[in-house]
Write a structure and sequence with these properties.
Elements (H helix, E strand, L loop, with lengths): L3 E11 L3 H14 L4 E7 L5 H8 L4 E4 L9 H13 L3 E7 L3 E3 L4 H6 L6 E5 L8 H10 L1 H9 L12 E5 H6 L16 H9 L3 E4 L2 H5 L2 E3 L3 H5 L7 H15 L2 H7 L7
Parallel strand pairs: 1-2, 1-4, 2-3, 6-8
Antiparallel strand pairs: 4-7, 5-9, 6-7
Length: 263
Amino acid sequence: MKFRKGTTTICIVNYKTEELTRLCLRSIRKFTEAPYRVVVVDNDSKDSSLEYLRSVDWITLIERPDEVTKSGSWAHGTALDKGLEVCDSEFFIAMHSDTFVHKQGWLKELLAYMNPDFACAGGGKLDLKPAWQVFLKRITDVKAFVRKKKSKKRDDFYIRTICALYRTEVLKKENLTFSMNVLDGVTCGKQLYYELIDRGYKTNIISEWTMAEWIYHLAHATMVLNPEFTVRSRTEKKCKKKIEKILSLPEVQSVMNDASLDK
Protein backbone atom coordinates (compact mmCIF):
# COMPACT_ATOMS: atom_id res chain seq x y z
CA MET A 1 0.00 0.00 0.00
CA LYS A 2 1.28 3.44 -0.94
CA PHE A 3 0.86 6.20 1.60
CA ARG A 4 0.26 9.81 0.58
CA LYS A 5 3.58 11.51 1.24
CA GLY A 6 3.51 14.69 3.31
CA THR A 7 -0.05 14.11 4.56
CA THR A 8 -1.34 13.43 8.06
CA THR A 9 -4.40 11.70 9.48
CA ILE A 10 -5.52 12.90 12.91
CA CYS A 11 -7.65 10.33 14.74
CA ILE A 12 -9.89 11.32 17.65
CA VAL A 13 -12.10 9.05 19.74
CA ASN A 14 -15.40 10.45 21.01
CA TYR A 15 -17.49 9.13 23.86
CA LYS A 16 -20.21 11.45 25.15
CA THR A 17 -18.06 14.59 25.32
CA GLU A 18 -19.82 16.91 22.89
CA GLU A 19 -18.40 20.20 24.21
CA LEU A 20 -14.81 18.99 24.39
CA THR A 21 -14.92 17.16 21.05
CA ARG A 22 -16.37 20.27 19.41
CA LEU A 23 -13.56 22.37 20.87
CA CYS A 24 -10.96 19.81 19.77
CA LEU A 25 -12.23 19.75 16.18
CA ARG A 26 -12.73 23.48 15.87
CA SER A 27 -9.25 24.15 17.21
CA ILE A 28 -7.75 21.79 14.64
CA ARG A 29 -9.73 23.52 11.90
CA LYS A 30 -8.60 26.95 13.06
CA PHE A 31 -4.90 26.34 13.68
CA THR A 32 -3.89 23.64 11.18
CA GLU A 33 -2.40 24.48 7.79
CA ALA A 34 -0.45 21.41 6.66
CA PRO A 35 -2.34 18.82 4.52
CA TYR A 36 -4.38 16.77 6.94
CA ARG A 37 -7.47 14.60 7.35
CA VAL A 38 -9.45 14.12 10.55
CA VAL A 39 -11.05 10.78 11.41
CA VAL A 40 -13.38 10.68 14.40
CA VAL A 41 -14.40 7.30 15.82
CA ASP A 42 -17.53 7.40 17.97
CA ASN A 43 -17.72 4.71 20.64
CA ASP A 44 -21.49 4.19 20.59
CA SER A 45 -22.27 7.48 22.35
CA LYS A 46 -25.98 7.53 21.46
CA ASP A 47 -26.22 11.18 22.54
CA SER A 48 -25.99 14.73 21.20
CA SER A 49 -22.24 14.42 20.61
CA LEU A 50 -22.90 11.88 17.86
CA GLU A 51 -25.53 14.16 16.30
CA TYR A 52 -22.98 16.98 16.32
CA LEU A 53 -20.35 14.81 14.62
CA ARG A 54 -22.82 13.85 11.90
CA SER A 55 -23.26 17.55 11.13
CA VAL A 56 -19.53 18.23 10.63
CA ASP A 57 -18.96 17.59 6.94
CA TRP A 58 -15.15 17.98 6.83
CA ILE A 59 -14.38 14.97 9.03
CA THR A 60 -14.53 11.24 8.34
CA LEU A 61 -16.86 9.76 10.95
CA ILE A 62 -16.71 6.10 11.93
CA GLU A 63 -19.62 4.96 14.09
CA ARG A 64 -19.47 1.86 16.28
CA PRO A 65 -23.11 1.19 17.22
CA ASP A 66 -23.51 -1.70 19.66
CA GLU A 67 -19.87 -2.68 19.02
CA VAL A 68 -18.24 -1.36 22.17
CA THR A 69 -18.57 -4.09 24.78
CA LYS A 70 -15.77 -3.05 27.12
CA SER A 71 -14.88 0.33 28.57
CA GLY A 72 -11.67 2.21 29.20
CA SER A 73 -8.47 1.41 27.36
CA TRP A 74 -10.03 -1.38 25.29
CA ALA A 75 -12.70 0.91 23.85
CA HIS A 76 -10.22 3.70 23.21
CA GLY A 77 -7.51 1.47 21.77
CA THR A 78 -9.79 -0.45 19.41
CA ALA A 79 -11.29 2.85 18.24
CA LEU A 80 -7.83 4.17 17.33
CA ASP A 81 -7.25 0.88 15.51
CA LYS A 82 -10.36 1.62 13.42
CA GLY A 83 -8.90 4.99 12.49
CA LEU A 84 -5.57 3.44 11.59
CA GLU A 85 -7.30 0.92 9.32
CA VAL A 86 -8.59 3.70 7.04
CA CYS A 87 -5.38 5.76 7.19
CA ASP A 88 -3.59 6.16 3.86
CA SER A 89 -1.44 9.15 4.83
CA GLU A 90 2.27 9.12 5.60
CA PHE A 91 1.66 10.09 9.22
CA PHE A 92 -0.96 9.13 11.81
CA ILE A 93 -1.72 11.20 14.91
CA ALA A 94 -3.61 9.74 17.86
CA MET A 95 -5.24 12.60 19.77
CA HIS A 96 -7.56 12.62 22.77
CA SER A 97 -10.90 14.40 22.50
CA ASP A 98 -9.98 16.41 25.62
CA THR A 99 -6.91 17.75 23.82
CA PHE A 100 -7.12 20.92 21.79
CA VAL A 101 -4.78 23.09 19.78
CA HIS A 102 -3.96 26.71 20.59
CA LYS A 103 -1.09 27.60 18.24
CA GLN A 104 -1.06 28.30 14.51
CA GLY A 105 1.30 26.00 12.63
CA TRP A 106 1.43 23.40 15.40
CA LEU A 107 1.28 20.45 12.99
CA LYS A 108 4.20 21.71 10.93
CA GLU A 109 6.24 22.10 14.11
CA LEU A 110 5.27 18.61 15.32
CA LEU A 111 6.17 17.03 11.97
CA ALA A 112 9.60 18.66 12.18
CA TYR A 113 10.37 16.20 15.01
CA MET A 114 9.73 13.23 12.70
CA ASN A 115 12.82 12.89 10.55
CA PRO A 116 13.28 9.67 8.49
CA ASP A 117 15.01 7.92 11.40
CA PHE A 118 11.96 8.04 13.67
CA ALA A 119 8.83 5.88 13.78
CA CYS A 120 7.11 7.87 16.51
CA ALA A 121 7.31 11.30 18.14
CA GLY A 122 5.48 12.79 21.08
CA GLY A 123 5.54 13.24 24.83
CA GLY A 124 4.42 11.73 28.08
CA LYS A 125 2.00 13.31 30.51
CA LEU A 126 1.26 16.98 29.95
CA ASP A 127 1.31 19.11 33.08
CA LEU A 128 0.19 22.72 33.07
CA LYS A 129 2.17 23.51 36.21
CA PRO A 130 5.33 25.63 35.85
CA ALA A 131 8.38 23.54 34.92
CA TRP A 132 10.08 24.14 38.26
CA GLN A 133 7.09 22.76 40.17
CA VAL A 134 7.00 19.60 38.06
CA PHE A 135 10.74 19.08 38.50
CA LEU A 136 10.52 19.65 42.26
CA LYS A 137 7.74 17.09 42.61
CA ARG A 138 9.74 14.52 40.67
CA ILE A 139 12.84 14.79 42.82
CA THR A 140 10.94 14.88 46.13
CA ASP A 141 8.23 12.26 45.47
CA VAL A 142 9.56 9.49 47.73
CA LYS A 143 6.49 7.26 47.29
CA ALA A 144 6.86 7.27 43.50
CA PHE A 145 10.55 6.40 43.86
CA VAL A 146 9.77 3.45 46.13
CA ARG A 147 7.03 2.19 43.80
CA LYS A 148 9.41 2.30 40.86
CA LYS A 149 12.09 0.39 42.78
CA LYS A 150 9.64 -2.34 43.82
CA SER A 151 8.01 -2.64 40.42
CA LYS A 152 9.17 -5.44 38.14
CA LYS A 153 7.74 -3.65 35.12
CA ARG A 154 9.89 -1.76 32.64
CA ASP A 155 10.22 2.04 32.71
CA ASP A 156 6.77 3.57 32.96
CA PHE A 157 7.51 6.20 30.32
CA TYR A 158 5.91 5.88 26.90
CA ILE A 159 4.74 8.32 24.27
CA ARG A 160 1.09 8.81 25.10
CA THR A 161 -1.83 9.03 22.71
CA ILE A 162 -2.70 12.48 24.04
CA CYS A 163 -1.10 13.76 20.83
CA ALA A 164 1.26 11.15 19.41
CA LEU A 165 2.70 11.13 15.90
CA TYR A 166 3.44 7.83 14.13
CA ARG A 167 4.80 6.77 10.76
CA THR A 168 1.83 4.88 9.31
CA GLU A 169 3.87 2.52 7.15
CA VAL A 170 5.79 1.24 10.18
CA LEU A 171 2.66 0.53 12.24
CA LYS A 172 1.04 -1.38 9.39
CA LYS A 173 4.21 -3.21 8.36
CA GLU A 174 4.73 -4.42 11.93
CA ASN A 175 1.01 -5.15 12.50
CA LEU A 176 1.02 -2.96 15.59
CA THR A 177 -2.23 -1.87 17.23
CA PHE A 178 -3.18 0.60 19.95
CA SER A 179 -5.20 -2.07 21.75
CA MET A 180 -2.26 -4.42 22.29
CA ASN A 181 -2.39 -5.97 25.79
CA VAL A 182 -5.06 -3.55 27.05
CA LEU A 183 -7.14 -6.46 28.35
CA ASP A 184 -4.16 -7.28 30.58
CA GLY A 185 -4.33 -3.84 32.15
CA VAL A 186 -1.85 -2.08 29.87
CA THR A 187 -2.79 1.49 28.95
CA CYS A 188 -3.82 2.15 25.36
CA GLY A 189 -0.77 2.70 23.14
CA LYS A 190 1.77 1.67 25.78
CA GLN A 191 2.57 -1.79 24.42
CA LEU A 192 2.71 -0.36 20.89
CA TYR A 193 5.44 2.04 22.01
CA TYR A 194 7.41 -0.72 23.72
CA GLU A 195 7.12 -2.91 20.63
CA LEU A 196 8.56 -0.15 18.46
CA ILE A 197 11.55 0.10 20.80
CA ASP A 198 12.02 -3.68 21.02
CA ARG A 199 11.92 -4.03 17.24
CA GLY A 200 14.71 -1.53 16.82
CA TYR A 201 12.76 1.57 15.81
CA LYS A 202 13.80 4.99 17.05
CA THR A 203 11.36 7.38 18.72
CA ASN A 204 11.70 11.10 19.36
CA ILE A 205 10.61 12.22 22.81
CA ILE A 206 9.30 15.78 22.91
CA SER A 207 9.33 17.58 26.25
CA GLU A 208 5.99 18.20 27.91
CA TRP A 209 6.70 21.92 27.94
CA THR A 210 7.22 21.97 24.19
CA MET A 211 4.00 20.00 23.69
CA ALA A 212 2.17 22.46 25.94
CA GLU A 213 3.19 25.27 23.59
CA TRP A 214 0.91 23.68 20.98
CA ILE A 215 -1.88 21.97 22.89
CA TYR A 216 -3.91 21.89 26.09
CA HIS A 217 -4.88 18.57 27.64
CA LEU A 218 -7.69 18.13 30.16
CA ALA A 219 -6.58 14.81 31.63
CA HIS A 220 -9.34 12.39 32.75
CA ALA A 221 -12.06 14.71 31.39
CA THR A 222 -14.00 11.96 29.58
CA MET A 223 -14.13 9.84 32.73
CA VAL A 224 -15.02 12.76 34.97
CA LEU A 225 -17.82 13.98 32.69
CA ASN A 226 -19.42 10.53 32.44
CA PRO A 227 -20.70 9.18 35.78
CA GLU A 228 -20.51 5.56 34.62
CA PHE A 229 -16.75 5.77 35.14
CA THR A 230 -15.26 5.72 38.61
CA VAL A 231 -12.50 8.17 39.47
CA ARG A 232 -11.02 9.25 42.77
CA SER A 233 -12.78 12.25 44.31
CA ARG A 234 -9.52 14.19 44.38
CA THR A 235 -8.96 13.54 40.68
CA GLU A 236 -12.53 14.53 39.88
CA LYS A 237 -12.23 17.77 41.81
CA LYS A 238 -8.91 18.72 40.17
CA CYS A 239 -10.17 17.86 36.69
CA LYS A 240 -13.40 19.84 37.01
CA LYS A 241 -11.44 22.84 38.27
CA LYS A 242 -9.03 22.57 35.33
CA ILE A 243 -11.90 22.23 32.82
CA GLU A 244 -13.58 25.33 34.22
CA LYS A 245 -10.31 27.28 34.11
CA ILE A 246 -9.34 26.31 30.55
CA LEU A 247 -12.81 26.71 29.05
CA SER A 248 -13.06 30.23 30.48
CA LEU A 249 -9.93 31.44 28.66
CA PRO A 250 -10.77 34.12 26.04
CA GLU A 251 -8.88 32.30 23.26
CA VAL A 252 -10.76 29.10 24.03
CA GLN A 253 -14.11 30.88 24.13
CA SER A 254 -13.29 32.40 20.74
CA VAL A 255 -12.88 28.96 19.20
CA MET A 256 -15.91 27.52 21.01
CA ASN A 257 -18.16 30.30 19.73
CA ASP A 258 -17.04 30.11 16.09
CA ALA A 259 -19.55 27.76 14.45
CA SER A 260 -18.06 28.51 11.03
CA LEU A 261 -15.22 26.14 11.95
CA ASP A 262 -17.66 23.24 11.60
CA LYS A 263 -17.99 23.94 7.88
